[in-house]
Every structure is written in structure tokens, then in C-alpha cells.
């Protein structure tokens, strides 16, 4: 009888040791998983934000402007889409020449692209001139008003027209310091991802 009781006790002790070992391994694995998750979250929160720039391949500087209709538009709202940012003014002859082609590109949408036409409003005689220009040319893409030239300064615009083709990841794919025709615009839009 003593041998049976001793055998039961030894079996129970071995069983308890195995159970304890398995339980501690499981708790250690759960603790390690929690620690890894916390580390990943901390890394995400402290990860440096990528700096923007104006060269091809750089993350395009974000901006926020109002449309002629008073709607707020941010470049970052278009992440996931191809964007054609064009800086222009009504008094600029090459801008006048390129606008009809921009409208055709926008209407055709051979390859989906959003056009954001940033008017250098600070250089205009009046905002009414801009509205008349938009109506005369039948422009249907968003016209953004850079009233204090902050965005033009951020993009270092020295002369107009100046355009930036921004791919769906928010990176600059092409820079055009001058007017483009429809064929060239279409070609550069097709190249973007």
C-alpha cells in the first residue's frame, strides 16, 4: 500500500512539474508576444517621418489650399492616386497655351490622374480674373488659390507654368519647369505608378 501511495505521489509530482513547465513556457511565449507588440508599437510611434523634397523620387511636400468654391484640399488627401500639380497664373501666355491640353487630359482619363491647378493668386489683379479665366477655358479640374504664395514658395516656383507629377505613393515622378503639350503630359502620366 505504501508503494502505491508513493507511486501516486511521484506520478502527481511529475505531472505537476510537466504541467508547470508547459504553463510557464506558454506564459513566457505570451509575455514575449506582448513585449514584441509593445516594441513594434513604440517603434511605429517613434519612427521618423520621412522628409519631403522636390527632386524626382522625393516625397512631395504636402500643402493645404482652398478651391475657388471654398473647399479645403490637401495634397495628402490624394495619396493612392496619380496627381498632376500645376502652378499657373492668368497673365502667363504659356499657361494659357497649356490649359486646354490639361483639360483634355482631365476629360480623357486614359490613365486616371487628378489635376490640381495651383493659381498664384497673390500675383493676380483679382480673383475675378481667375474665375473668368476658368470659365473662358471651361476648366473642370480643381483650381486651388495660393493667396499668400506659401505653396509656390514651398515648391520653389520661380516661373510659371511649373508642374509636378506625383505618383500614387506621394513621390515626385516628374518635374516640368515650363509648358507641356497633351502628348507629353499623357506620356508622363502613363509612366507614373
From TrEMBL:
Residue ranges occupied by any Thioredoxin domain in the UniProt entry: 54-193
Classification via SUPFAM superfamilies: Thioredoxin-like (SSF52833)
Keyword Oxidoreductase included in the entry's annotation: yes
Keywords (A to Z) from UniProt: Disulfide bond, Oxidoreductase, Peroxidase
Species: Planococcus chinensis
Transmembrane portions of the chain: none
Signal peptide: none
GO terms for MF: thioredoxin-dependent peroxiredoxin activity
PANTHER family documented for this protein: THIOL:DISULFIDE INTERCHANGE PROTEIN DSBE, THIOREDOXIN-LIKE PROTEIN YNEN
Name under which the protein is recorded: Peroxiredoxin family protein
Record flagged with keyword Disulfide bond: yes
Entry's EC annotation: 1.11.1.24
Pfam families, sorted: AhpC-TSA
InterPro entries: AhpC/TSA, Thioredoxin-like_sf, Thioredoxin_CS, Thioredoxin_domain, Thioredoxin_ResA/DsbE_sf
Amino acid at each position: 500500500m505504501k508503494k502505491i501511495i508513493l507511486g501516486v505521489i511521484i506520478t502527481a509530482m511529475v505531472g505537476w512539474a510537466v504541467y508547470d513547465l508547459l504553463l510557464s513556457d506558454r506564459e513566457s511565449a505570451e509575455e514575449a508576444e506582448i513585449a514584441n507588440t509593445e516594441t513594434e508599437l513604440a517603434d511605429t510611434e517613434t519612427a521618423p517621418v520621412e522628409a519631403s523634397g522636390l527632386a524626382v523620387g522625393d516625397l512631395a511636400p504636402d500643402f493645404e489650399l482652398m478651391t475657388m468654391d471654398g473647399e479645403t484640399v490637401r495634397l495628402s488627401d490624394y495619396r493612392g492616386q496619380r496627381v498632376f500639380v500645376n502652378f499657373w497664373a492668368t497673365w502667363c501666355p504659356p499657361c494659357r497655351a497649356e490649359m486646354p491640353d490639361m483639360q483634355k487630359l482631365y476629360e480623357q482619363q486614359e490613365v486616371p490622374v487628378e489635376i490640381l491647378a495651383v493659381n498664384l493668386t497673390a500675383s493676380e489683379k483679382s480673383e475675378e480674373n481667375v474665375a473668368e479665366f476658368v470659365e473662358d477655358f471651361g476648366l473642370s479640374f480643381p483650381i486651388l488659390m495660393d493667396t499668400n504664395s506659401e505653396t509656390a514658395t514651398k515648391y520653389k516656383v520661380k516661373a510659371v507654368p511649373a508642374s509636378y507629377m506625383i505618383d500614387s505613393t506621394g513621390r515626385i515622378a516628374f518635374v516640368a519647369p515650363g509648358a507641356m503639350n497633351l502628348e507629353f503630359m499623357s506620356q508622363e502620366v502613363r509612366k507614373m505608378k
